[in-house]
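ugh ok fine here u go
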Amino acid sequence: MWRYRELLPVSPLNAVNLGEGGTPLPRSVQLAADLGFNEVYFKNEGQNPTGSFKDRGMTVAVTRAVEIVAKEVVCASTGNTSASMAAYAARAGLRAAVLIPRGKIAKGKLLQAVVHGARIRQVTGNFDKALIKARTLASKRGLYLVNSLNPYRIEGQKTLAFEVWEQLRKVPDAIILPVGNAGNISAIWKGFSELKRVSATRSTPRMIGVQAAGAAPIADAYAKGDSDIIPWPHPETAATAIRIGAPASWKKALRAVRDSDGAMLTVSDHEILGAQRLLASREGIFAEPASSASVAGLLKASRSGLINRRESIVCVITGHGLKDQGSVGAAR
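structure:
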């Protein structure tokens, strides 16, 4: 993704990278036929170095940490952010501190952070409590915060839009992706908006976000037409990566959905786990539950008529299934 260096706000001379980006965009063979769609694609971000889309943002955020001579980076995480941050911090020679909600993180993701040498601190409560403590640590001790509140993360994640445009040689009609802390949907929308702003494209896709029904404050606000969200104090879903009740980037997410004439959907855990199994058995792509929310969203949008079967659709698969294995048996 560093081939887009002119569009990134850091110097490539300092780039801390592990070969992130350039992930495959296979066209659906089986599911598209099953559903009667002409064009469905899967942007498989599980093929990034640490197995998730987080690497796109982390390479830029940690590069910025090096530029400002930070000594230690910190994040709150449901799993993927901690794994990615720990790896890039190790690459840069920085210390890494991770705050996780006790008992609320997939073991595979936690193992990655441990192996890469991060200091792990468990927090009583959910991700939202962990993020509050991470922000406090960053403020009081001068640690560099790399959660999606960090604008450099968003700058890196927007490159997914550039890649999709190059791979398809056009702008798709819709992008469907999971929404947790909501940084990714706003980042991808930013990328497509920039392409249009520089006249590289004439159109932008509809952004369709998908939240788990047990952790859906943004979808709830969207459905009601509200301009603010009401945080959910006790979010619960098998899709651990999007188990977030007070998403930090909710304003940008709502703006992306509304400005793109998109939508924000909810899907049940049953639908998510069913989509996970369907994606693996019909397309050969093993995605973690949160990633499978995009495919569950595709199925729901198809049934409701939200998307036209002649349109080109890209489902973003945000992380590899091996990172969160605990729910696989429940999908049977």
